[in-house]
Amino acid sequence: MNINLQSLKAVSHLAAKKDTRYYLVGVLVEYTEWQTILVATNGHALAARRMETDNTGSGSFIIPLDTVDTILRIKTKDSSFTIDVGDDGKCTASLAGQSVLFAPVEGKFPDWRKVIPRGPFSGHAAQFQPQYLMSFQKAAEALARKGTSLAIAYNGNAAALVEVNGDQDFVGVIMPYKADTPMSSPSWSH
Asked: Distance between CA atoms of 12 and 91, rounded to whole angstroms?
């Protein structure tokens, strides 16, 4: 199967870096004969990117995050690479004349489609962790050809939809948080 490097880089920004849910420390690859979908989540934000591709068969596996990092460090002018799944379940990523062998993460990735909000969206503003918004900004920069933009379908205390550069093959979700203490401006600023 062919995988677009920019898409892998984009979703990898939302993968968990360290988590007891080890299956989140990687990028899910779902493939059918006509498309490949890459998904990553840290449990608070999620990114999915779809690519139309010609694949043999269908299935899914999780690329470990350290393997994703290795692939992304390979210097190339190519925009995509291939992954072959062996009969033994081991995978080989081929890029720029190099091969990266890896064992997919054992475990079941969550049903990511269940968390995608369908709308209608309330439009009520919410608070979001800045580091998750920055992760989406980095995803947008990885996919951008000219400029980057994020659009958020605010949904109050429910999951919000994130759009990156108007890309209809990308979907993001971010969970809001509630501030524990009421805010007020400091007295010295009046």
From this structure: 18
Could you tell me the two tokens for 118?
């369908």
The full DSSP string for the chain is -EEEHHHHHHHHTTS-SS-SSGGGSEEEEEE-SSEEEEEEE-SSEEEEEEEE---SS-EEEEEEHHHHHHHHHS--S-SEEEEEE-TTS-EEEEETTEEEEEPPPPS----GGGGS--S-------B--HHHHHHHHHHHHHH-SS---EEEE--TTS-EEEEETT-TTEEEEE--B--SS-----GGG-
Domains of the chain: 2-174 (3.10.150.10)
Q: For the segment 59-110, what is each residue's pLDDT rounded down to a tens digit?
A: 999 999 999 999 999 999 889 999 999 989 899 999 999 999 999 999 999 9
Rounded to whole angstroms, the Cα distance separating 171 from 6 reads 15
Give the integer Cα–Cα distance in Å for 45 and 112.
11
The verdict on pTM exceeding 0.85 is yes
d(CA 114, CA 128): 20
Backbone angles phi, psi at 80, to 5 degrees: -145, 170
